[in-house]
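Contributing new complexes? Match this layout with FE2/S2 (inorganic) cluster.
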Amino acid sequence: MKLRKMWLNINGANRVFACNPEKDSLADVLRRMGLTGTKVGCGTGVCGSCSVILDGKVIRSCTKKMRTVEEYSKVITIEGIGTPNNLHPVQVAWMNCGAVQCGFCSPGFIVSAYGLLLENNNPTREEVREWFQKHRNVCRCTGYKQIVDAVMAAAKVVRGEASIEDITFQLPEDNEYYGKPVVRPTALAKVCGLADYGDDQELKMPAETLHVAVAQPRIAHHAKILKIDTSEAETMPGVVKIITHKELKEAGGTNMMAEGQFHERTTVMVPSRKILAEDKIFRYGDVVALAVADTKDHARAAAAKIKVEIEQLPEYLSYLDAVMPDAMRVHEDTPNIFSMQPVMKGVGLEDPAKVQEVIDNSAHSVSGSFHSTREPHLTIEGTTVQAYFDEDDYLTIQCKSQGVYSSIGRIGNSLGVPKDKLRIVLNPTGASFGWSTNAGDICLAGAAAVVTKMPVALSMSYEEHQHFSGKRCPSYSNGRVACDENGIITAAEFDIGMDHGAYSWGGDDIMTKPARFSFFPYKVPHVAGLVRIANTNHNFGTAYRSYGSPQAYTLSEALMDMLAEKAGIDPFEFRWRNIARPGDTNINSYPFRQYPMEEMMKMMRPIYEKAVQEAKAADTPAKRRGVGISWGGFNVTEGGTDSASAAIELAPDNTFIKYDTYQELGQGGDIGSLMLTLEALKPLGVTPDRIRLVQNDTKLCPDSGMSGASRTHFMSGKATIVAAEKLLNAMRKPDGTYRTYDEMVAAGLETKYYGKYQTVSVPGLCRLDPNTGIGDPTPAYTYCLNLAEVEVDTATGKTRVLRFTCVDDVGRVGNIDAVNGQAYGGISHCIGFALSENYHDVKKHANMAGAGVPYILDIPDEINVIHFERPDEEGPFGSSGASEAFQSSGHMAVLNAINNACGVRVYEMPATPEKVKAGLNIIAAGGKVEPPQKYFLGSELYDELEEIKANPVKFGGDDFFIPLGGASAERFF
Ligand code: FES
Ligand code: FES
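Output block (do not edit by hand):
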C-alpha cells in the first residue's frame, strides 16, 4: 500500500497526515484525525450527513477521494463552526427550533447551512429548501420544517437583526416547565459534532479491539445451505477467527434467538431465527458467518472470501405467493400462515355471515382490495455495535436498542451467557423508528466477543444494514363497507393478510393491530373481520412507528372515501356523521377510552373548507388540485401486562440523579425523562441544571421497558411520579420544608428511591379474545385527524404535497418541541410511505435514495400541527402517548387527496408518478381505475370465520405467553 503525506488547512490550522489517496475519502481522513463530527451515514453520497466545506464549497466528504483533494485546501468541519462555549448562531438556532432530534444529520446540515449563509445571509425559506435539496441533506426525524425555521432564525442573528438571546428559549422563572420547549439535554453535543454515535465509539475503542465483518452472501431469498467454506477466508491477512454457527455453539451458545408466542392461535413452536444461518437461507439479508480481524478492511476482505454452496428453494416474496395451496413451508414446524385474529361484532358475533347480509341490504356499499408496502425505516445511521467483557465480566454490548432490557430477553440463551451477565448499553443513536426493537445485530457482535473473548466492533455498510434490518410488514387486504341512505355506516367486513417475512417474532402481536384500528375511530355496528399473518422469504417484519396500524387505515380510510363518494356525501361530512360518540363502541365492542373526535373535527372543519375552496380555485387541467382527509390513532402502552420502573436519587451536592431506560432514539428520551422529573419534583423548585440523567444501561438503570407502543412517556412518567413521591416524602420535614442530603444522611434516610408502575392497576384492561376480537387492551388512545392538500401534474403523474394539517389528541403536551418533532417527522414518513418508499426490489431499494427517502422538496414547508390537548385521565400529568398516531394514517390523506384531485385511486402503494399517470390515461380513455382483483389470502373470509367459530381456542387471558428458545426468554415485547 502506498501512502501520501499531505497538508490540509482544517478549521484554520495547517495539519499534516498520511493517507491512501486512492482509497481514503476526505471523511475517512477527517474521522481518523478525531474530527468525528463529520458523520458517515449512507457512505454513497445520497444523505449529506458527511457535509464539509472544501475551499468554500459544501461537499459530501464520503465520496470525495483524497486523490482529488489539493494539498493545503481549506476544510471547515462542524468542529470549526462553533464549540459548546462559543456556539455559532446556526447551532443555537438548531437547538432552540427543535431541529435536533437524533442529531445524526445535524452536523452535516449545520455545515451546509453555514455554507449557505456565507453565500447568502438573507435567504428565503424556498432558497433554504433548494439549497438543502441541492446538497442532498436528508433528515429522517424532523420533517425538515424545524430545520428551515432554524436557518431563518440564525440568518437574522448573522445579519445583526436579532441577538442570540432572541433565538434562545429562556427558562421560565416560575418553574412551570411542563409543556415548554426546554432544550433537550443531548442537543448541545449533537450540534457541536461531539455526540459519539456507534461508529464514533468504534474509532475510540482501545487499539486491541477486533473488527467484525459479516458474510451476507446475498445469493438467494430461500435456499438450502450445502456447505460454508471458510478455508480461504481463514488464511487472509489479519484474520483472528472466522465464526459460523459451529464456532458459536462450541463456545456455549445455542445460536437461536429467543422468541415469545403471545397469541393462542399462533402455530410457531420453535424459534424461527438463528444468529448465523445453519442449514437454510430464509431471506436475502441472512448472515452465514462472521470474519473477525485486526482491522475493518481485513475483516471485510476475509468475509468476502467465505463461500457458500446452496441448493435453490422456491422463493415466496409476498404474502400472496406464500399462502398458495402448493407453497412449501418456509419453516417446517408451522404453516406459512402462522397466526390469525378474528373480529366479530353485532350480528357478526352471532353469525359472521349475517354481516354480509347487512352489507348487501344496505342503501350503499363499496368494496376494494389494497396493498401497503414493505416500508423501510431509512435511518441515516445504520447498524453499528461494540461488544466486550467489562471489568465485572459482563458481556457488554453498546448498540442501538429500543429496549435495552428487552434485548436481553431476545438474546436468550443464544450466546451462552447467563442473562444476569449481559449488559446492554444504548449508544448515542442516529434514530430507529422501530428497527432496533430486534436484537439480531446485537447477537452478531455478542457472538464475536464470546468466541474471541476480545473487544469487538461491528459496523455494517448501509447496504448490508438495509438488507439485514427488518421492515414494516406489507399488507394485502380486501374489504367492504356499507351505509344507509343517510350515510350512516351499517356494517363492515375486512380480510387482511400481513407479510411477516422470514421470521415470526412479533408477528402475532402486530396482527392484532389491524384487528383494532380498522375503521378507527368510527361507530360500526356490525363487523366481520380477520387478520392473518404469514411467513414469506422477504425481509422480516418488525416494529415501525405506528406498528401495524397503517395497514388497517390503508383499507378503511380508502373505503370511507369511496363510500362517501358512492353516497354522494362530502368525505369530511361523511366522517363527521360516523365518528364514535360517547357510548358508541369500537370494532372490539368496547367504548373508546376517550371521545375527542367531535371537538377535533370542529377544529379541522374550517381548515378543510378553506382548503377545498383553494383547491377548486387553483385547479387546472395541467395541475390538478385535491384535498384528502383521514382519521388515525394508536394505542398507548403494551396493554394489561405493561410495567415500568425508574429511580431518583438525591446527590451529595443536593442535585438529583434520575435513572431510567427511557431509550433516546431521537424521539426525546432524554428530554421526556427530564420534563417528567422536573414536574414530579416541582415542590422542590428544581431547575433543569440540577437534574442529571443516567439512562439506558442495564447495569445502572432500572427497567423502564421498551421505547415503543407510544408507551414510554406514559409508563415511565407514572413510574417517575411514584419514585418522586417516595423521595419527597422522605425529604419532607414536619414543618413542610425539605431535608438536604446531609440532613437525610444524618436522619438515617435512604437517598435513592425506586418507582414502579404497572398497567394491571388500570381497571378493565383485557387482550383481544382470539375467538371474537372482543377486548380492550389500552388504557388510552392517541388520535390524529389529517388533511393533505396535493397537486398532481397530469403530464407526469407526479404528486406534490403542498400543505399538511394535523389535529391531534395526545393528551397534555410534555415538551412542545419534542411532540411537534414526532408530529412533523411522522407526517414526513407518511408522505414518503404514500408516494415513494419501498423495500421490495433488493437491488433498487438497497440504499436510501433508491428506497425512496423523501428529500426536503418532497415534504411541504407548511405542516400545521394543532394539539387538542385534552388532559388524559390516566396518564402522567395529563399526558398520553405521543408519537405513533402521527404516522398511523397520514398516507391515506395523501392518497385520498390524489383521488380528489384527479379521480385516480391508488389501491397499491406507493403512488408513484407512473401509477398515477397510468390511472390518468385510463380516465382519459373514458375508463375507471378499478381495484386489483380481490386478493386470495388463504381461504375465503367467511369460511375461515365459520371455522374459527366452530373450533374456538381456549382464551388464556392476560397471562398467556409461551417462551420459545430457552429459559432466558421472557416477556420482552
Ligand atoms: Fe456522505 Fe451520506 S452523503 S454519508
Ligand atoms: Fe435528522 Fe435524526 S435529526 S436524521
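Reviewers usually confirm one structural detail per submission. For this one: The chain has five domains: 4-80, 92-194, 203-313+383-468, 339-375+472-637+769-924, 643-761.
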